[in-house]
Design a protein that fits this description.
This protein has 12 helices and 10 strands. The mean pLDDT is 93. The strands form 4 sheets. It has a 4-stranded antiparallel beta sheet. The chain is elongated, with a radius of gyration of 33 Å. The chain is of the alpha+beta class and 389 residues long. The longest helix has 29 residues.
């Protein structure tokens, strides 16, 4: 359908509203790209999936969706066997977790495949793997934080590092609080400069404490010195940090390998979760405007009963009841300015396009539409219904 005609009907604003009910980027893309169909079987299928989501959400609330964002780069890295970072691994694990949650959502005694054939097919295609998700979430606490017990080696390294840091702090604390050194100290604190433990020394006593100067305060009154007594211990910590980073890379590499055999399942999950997100967004939108699924007529007839323009506040909109094609095929509407002629025309065109897109429309249950080859508009003035213009 020509997008100029759709814009005249403000169809794009319907998509903007629909988009807000989507959670995933994939779902939002489907909403943004939604267009009316002129194939009757497709329209019936689109309306049916919306009806199933409305009925299911009424009985079982709405399911939750996780937005993985755009993970094309992550998938390419996975396909080329590149090690993934913590954020990417968590994203992939959350996709599997979301799939498991959605399967659980649909696995209820009162839900049967016969009642929800379209949704049942989608939910059943979801892939979950509890062993992988458990492994990822046990190793990665949150983005950029690897659990100590992600490996025995990592636990050992961090334990040594922790004990050594405590030993250094104890040694420096004794030093800065001792009668011999306290007068040289600017503040009784231990800090870190260049990833090494240092103490703040008054500038005039810089030569009184043997060690390496790592930094000077902005005012120049304080120098940060690493005492020679802890030099080797700082070196040990530096080596442990390197060992820790190497071990973390090994862990991330091993975790990445878990996803390599299931790349196709991840891709399928993204599509299915996005599709489900989009379908339930249609149901949410339908409930927000008190909409129904219209019947699809085999005859070139339109019947709208108490139809309301979806862009006008439902508390103030004036409903219209209109039949076209049954007893006559042309309808002439006359009346004064601001009498509702253009709104009526736009309501008929917009609701027809919405229904042919698989969207519920705000009118009474007995309403029906016909799937036309096309919908054309010829409106002389550019009115903005949502802004009451």
């Amino acid at each position: 359908m020509n997008t100029n005609h759709l814009e005249k009907l403000e169809y794009n604003k319907i998509l903007e509203q629909l988009n807000k009910f989507c959670t995933t980027q994939y779902g939002k893309n489907l909403a943004n790209e939604l267009l009316p169909s002129n194939e009757k079987t497709k329209v019936i299928s689109l309306l049916q999936e919306t009806l199933e989501a409305i009925n299911l959400s009424t009985r079982n609330s709405f399911p939750s969706f996780y937005d993985a964002g755009d993970i094309k780069i992550t998938l390419k890295q996975l396909e080329s066997m590149q090690s993934l970072n913590t954020k990417s691994l968590l994203n992939l694990a959350n996709i599997l977790k979301n799939a498991e949650e959605l399967k659980t959502y649909f696995d209820k005694d009162f839900i049967t495949s016969d009642s929800f054939p379209i949704l049942s097919n989608l939910f059943n295609m979801l892939y979950s793997n509890n062993s992988i998700t458990s492994k990822i979430f046990s190793c990665i606490i949150e983005e950029n934080i690897i659990d100590d017990r992600a490996s025995k080696e990592l636990y050992s390294i961090r334990n040594k590092k922790k004990n050594l840091e405590q030993e250094i702090r104890s040694k420096l604390n004794n030093m800065i609080h001792s009668s011999s050194y306290s007068k040289y100290i600017q503040e009784s604190i231990i800090t870190i400069r260049n990833e090494r433990f240092v103490i703040p020394v008054k500038e005039e006593y810089r030569s009184s404490i043997k060690g390496l100067i790592h930094d000077v305060s902005n005012a120049g009154s304080t120098v940060f010195i690493e005492p020679l007594s802890i030099f080797e211990m700082n070196n040990e910590i530096h080596e442990l940090v390197n060992d820790e980073n190497i071990e973390i890379e090994k862990i991330l590499s091993e975790l990445t390998k878990l996803f390599v055999p299931i790349i196709s399942h991840i891709k399928d999950n993204l599509d299915i979760i996005g599709k489900l997100d989009f379908i339930f967004a249609k149901a949410k939108y339908a409930k927000s405007i008190d909409a129904i699924i219209p019947k699809v007529s085999n005859r070139k007839e339109i019947t709208f009963k108490n139809a309301r323009h979806p862009l006008i506040n439902k508390e103030t909109v004036v409903p219209i009841t209109l039949t076209l094609g049954k007893d006559f095929s042309t309808l002439l509407i006359t009346g004064p300015n601001t009498g509702g002629k253009t709104v009526t025309l736009k309501t008929v065109g917009l609701l027809t396009c919405m229904a042919c897109s698989g969207l519920a429309i705000p009118c009474d249950e007995s309403s029906s539409i016909y799937v036309f080859d096309n919908v054309y508009t010829d409106i002389g003035d550019d009115q903005d219904i949502s802004s009451s213009l």
